[in-house]
Amino acid sequence: MRYANVQTAIPGPNSEKALELWKTYEADKTGYQAQVAIESGKGAMLYDVDGNAFIDWTSGVLVTNIGHCHPALVEAVREASGKILNVYEYCNPYRANAAKDLVDAAPKHLDSCFFLTTGSEATDAAARIMKRFTNNYEIVSFFGGFHGRTLSTASLGGLKKTKKGMGPMVPGGIRVPYPYCYRCPVAAKKETCNMLCLSLLDDIVQANSSDALAGLIVEPYLGTAGFVFPPSGYLPMLEKWVREKKIPYTIDEVQSSYGRTGVMWASSREGLTPDIITIGKGIGSGVSVSALLMQKQMIDKALGKGELGSTYGGNPVSCAAVSAVLKVIREEKILKNAQTIGEIFRTRLAKLVDASPYVGDVRGIGLVYGIELVEDKKTKEPAPRLTSQLIDLCAQKGLLIGSVGVFGNVVRVAPPLVINEAQANESIDIMESCIKLLK
Questions:
Q1: Which SS3 state, helix, strand or coil, does residue 305 take?
Q2: Each residue's pLDDT tens digit, 150-197
Q3: CB-CB neighbours of 24 under 10 Å
Q4: By the number of CB atoms within 10 A of the CB, which of 82, 160, 317, 355 ranks highest?
Q5: Structural domain boundaries of the chain?
Q6: Phi-psi bin for 333: left (phi > 0), alpha (psi -120 to 50), beta?
Q7: How far apart are CA 143 and CA 175, in angstroms?
Q8: Class of 71-331 per CATH?
Q9: Which residues pair with 53 in a beta bridge?
Q10: DSSP label at residue 321
Q11: Host H or E run for residue 99
Q12: CA neighbours within 13 Å on the CB side: how many for 142?
């Protein structure tokens, strides 16, 4: 059985009409995507308005971890929405149950949560808590980091595209190198590196700080910057540095949690104990919701009553989704599937580096990988041109991919965690065949 089935040229006639209407009436400032108009989805599959079937490698930008329109999620949302849509700060049973479910699934040292709506909101709230907790204002973050597109969250990030033309950032940001080993930010040699970027932390902070450190925020891997994974041992050493400074720190798991790396929390892979975890995307698997995980004593010390809220945070519909997603992950052994199918991706994608003159690096774990395309392997010149070409080639054969990266030259490999073995192998077959057509 083949899953991908494309019967028309892309875009098909109905997609073409929808795309024209969309671009006429809404400012299209999204990144480059396959030219299709999606009508429906199920599991790891997406279907456009022309009846074409695609295997999805994007998960709606790492959102639909339990698959598109999982029946249990759809039913939970339908049931809740038929009762009440939003009650702002009033308690509702969906919110109370979701809070218990989330804390039960959290790392054991975190015993409290708070619901918001977007990843940016969660990041902003985490920064406020760290600042209020310490009565300081400087936050250490990283080159290539992405924590949102609002002014405050972009100020914490390390990507030009989220800041361009925005003028002065929120004061107090101190950015340090992230270990992007394929493109080392400090030009170290792999054989003699010895975590050089980590050893530079003290010098960079000392040169930029006014002795008012409030905390640090870091991603377990850089998502938007190109699925950049730090070497083993880096994050525990970073945590040791934070503890020596006696400041709290946040791990941004908006992209990396809920099984994406084969375990519930990417931070738990190396036994990390962050003071705050920010969550979004996969927590609702398509329903807009985000949250903070933290220690109750920390947030109680940092903020008083009425000092943290969100108009739609904790609404019944989103909270019903939170509980439904956690139940599906538990009962359907989603984490195990991410590990098993992830091994197929790891083994087969690694071979692309030797098979193609344009694949400079493949990196990842579980069901999140980045394929970095370059014009030349010696110079490592980024190839966003080839990445756009590959997006179109794959769509013609029934595979939907996206691009990320500082230079827009990294293929996003992040299918829904329910993808099966046949879909995994078929989609990789398509990728292999399309990479051979690049020129």
A1: coil
A2: 999 999 999 988 888 888 899 999 999 999 999 998 888 888 898 889
A3: 8
A4: 317
A5: 13-66+334-435, 71-331
A6: left
A7: 6
A8: alpha beta
A9: 5, 47
A10: H
A11: helix 93-105
A12: 29
